[in-house]
């Protein structure tokens, strides 16, 4: 059976939890319900790999957003198959497009099936960042949030890395979160996104806390680690892969070190509640319930 076929075949739902999966040792913060010093908690909610006119799952995840207030993020591959103006109008617009006014997106490789991701930048406008770049940052409560573009050519990647380092230096927040399309770490079959490592290095050196990515169509959570994949409970980045927005599901390959939770075949949303010095996460599946949750503190 070909690798492509395996990747495109929906896997059976598999949930693998390590001991204490919902709460990693050392990941502490204010007790639930404790008042935070930075004002009310802020919510980031979203997923990647979302809208296809051949799937109904994007409508299901979009319906979940109706009941969750906060800022919506997308992790790329927003409109299949090619990120054309028609794909956004016919496939993304009727589902996640209903939440466009509160969405802060990043592009994926399918957006770049269209020349320079032009329709993506046209659809989201200023919310997508500068056309041709697609990376930007913003403040959410006491958190600094960075949206990155993993689909740039080599020279533009170097420019983005320089921008990222300058941005992080200019915004020395205690708590920092970044999101992008391609994950550095994934237990998916045959994936290698090594060119995002310099972005990870910049985030790690600046003391950032959380990275969220898509690209692989499943849910996976990693323990805090360095860009080299070494467990680091004190300064490591906790990464989530949330390619569960509606497109077809993938199966897993060999499990990478530091992978704590893996679930394939489930569509849903990642909800992050950002507090002063701490955060909680929930993976919310279509149909209700919570499949993974936990709490962490900022460095």
Radius of gyration: 18 Å
Helix and strand composition category: alpha/beta
Number of helices: 6
Low-confidence stretches: 1-37
Lateral arrangement of strands in the main beta sheet: 1-11-9-10-8-7-6-5
How many E-type strands? 14
Percentage beta strand: 15-25%
Shape: globular
Distance between the termini: 45 Å
Instruction: Note the main sheet.
Output: 8 strands, mixed
Percent helix, as a range, is 10-25%
* Overall residue-averaged pLDDT value: 89
| Helix and strand run | HEEHEHEHEEHEHEEEEEEE
Describe what you observe in this structure.
- This protein is α/β, with parallel strands linked by helices.
- It has 6 helices and 14 strands.
- The strands form 2 sheets. An 8-stranded mixed β-sheet has the order 1-11-9-10-8-7-6-5, with no helix packed on it. A 6-stranded mixed β-sheet has the order 4-3-2-12-13-14, with helices on one face.
- The chain starts with a helix and ends with a strand.
- The N terminus is likely disordered.
